[in-house]
Design goal:
about 325 residues; mainly alpha; three-stranded mixed beta sheet; 12 helices; globular
Length: about 325
């Protein structure tokens, strides 16, 4: 698709490739970042694969909540793998060139996976809302069919709504500059090199953020507000504590995920003179959640922890 776009606009393109410079301001020693980033990537892959193994092998975990967690693990691995091999190649081997179609393809896949992660967080919030606020209706509402339909809907929503992002970027005229002060092909980083007006790119980026991420976050906040209201009405403190404990890990991950997105948006909108923070946050946002999500769930979820002990053949007496 992106190759066809490039061919159809060949008269506009003056550069044949982009150069990803890495982290602005620290080019001389940025290769040292390959170690922590590489370890984070390995942790993300190994932890999420382990989560998938635990869920598949433990019959007690064959429930909608854990199905969504398994889908989140797949999305996390896809997101990390979309960007980390190229970033490590830049840092270790100075392999910083990327063709225009490859750059636009990476831009598209990143937007898809980030939107998909937001959508899965929403599905998990709905799951917790039904389980806590309407427990008697939970078995009839949150079924395997619901999980499949919700996942397919989120996949279609994000794959279709993000198509204009790389298409609009591909239609810009890159006539001279081709050095991107970034480790990955972010929409704003790429289109900032164009010689023509990029207002429509910025408008669609903001529209996408508000309609997808904004609506997801709004519904998640509403779900947990209703959960909190329901829990506070209960007479039993033990029951309320147990209900909230099932949401703790989810809330930690949601807080980190959306907080970083807001910070990245602010730093980009204010056009910081030192963009290192924005670039570093952007990279970390795509690798820390995949590494953090399974660790937080394994630590905070008793059933998942038991499954981990069984898979690793550890003594679980008294756990």
């Amino acid at each position: 698709m992106f190759q066809d776009l490039r061919d159809s606009n060949s008269s506009k393109f003056q550069v044949s490739q982009f150069i990803l410079m890495g982290f602005p301001g620290i080019h001389s020693w940025q290769h040292w970042l390959s170690l922590p980033l590489g370890l984070l990537y390995l942790l993300a892959l190994s932890a999420n694969i382990l989560i998938l193994i635990i869920i598949s092998q433990e019959a007690t975990l064959h429930q909608p909540m854990y199905h969504f967690l398994g889908i989140l693990a797949v999305v996390d691995m896809g997101l990390a793998t979309t960007i980390m091999p190229k970033i490590l190649a830049i840092l270790l081997f100075n392999a910083n060139t990327i063709s225009l179609p490859e750059c636009f393809a990476q831009m598209y896949v990143i937007h898809c996976f980030v939107g998909m992660e937001s959508g899965i967080f929403l599905c998990m919030a709905i799951d917790r809302y039904i389980a806590i606020c309407q427990p008697l209706r939970y078995p009839s509402i949150i079924t395997e069919s619901f999980v499949i339909k919700a996942t397919v809907f989120m996949a279609l929503r994000n794959s279709l709504s993000t198509i204009p992002v790389p298409m609009l970027a591909a239609q810009r005229n890159y006539c001279s500059q081709n050095q991107i002060e970034h480790c990955l092909c972010s929409n704003l980083g790429v289109t900032s090199l164009s010689c023509d007006d990029r207002t429509i790119n910025s408008i669609y980026q903001r529209l996408l953020a508000w309609t997808l991420m904004g609506s997801d976050l709004g519904l998640i906040v509403l779900s947990y507000a209703l959960i909190l209201h329901s829990v506070l009405k209960r007479n039993s403190a033990e029951s309320a504590s147990k209900a909230l404990s099932t949401c703790t890990s989810h809330l930690i991950l949601i807080f980190f995920f959306y907080t970083v997105i807001v910070v990245i948006s602010i730093t980009h909108s204010r056009a910081m003179t030192v963009p290192l923070i924005a670039v570093l946050l952007n990279v970390l946002h795509n690798v820390i959640p995949p590494a953090l999500n399974p660790v937080v769930y394994a630590l905070k979820n008793k059933e998942l922890r038991r499954g981990l002990y069984k898979v690793l053949k550890l003594d679980i007496k008294g756990k």
